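Reply to dn_fold:

You asked what the input looked like. This is it:
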Amino acid sequence: MDLISILATVILITTIGTLVVGVAAYVAFKLRDKRRPKRKDPTASVEGEIQPIFLKRYTPEKHAAPAVTTTSPS
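and this is what came back:
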């Protein structure tokens, strides 16, 4: 075998191996996700919206309307 065919074989095997490992990881993730006990989020409000624990949402204060300046024609 020459060098090109050896490198092509190595690339093909690593690509197939990567795909197999990726599919196996996805299946393992789905199985683990299925076994996880479902529990209600303690930070959720009555409406189901998750409230922040450590950070407070920034809400800018409403600024006063800009002063209206009237200029008299001279």
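The longest helix spans residues 3-35.
Hope that clears it up.
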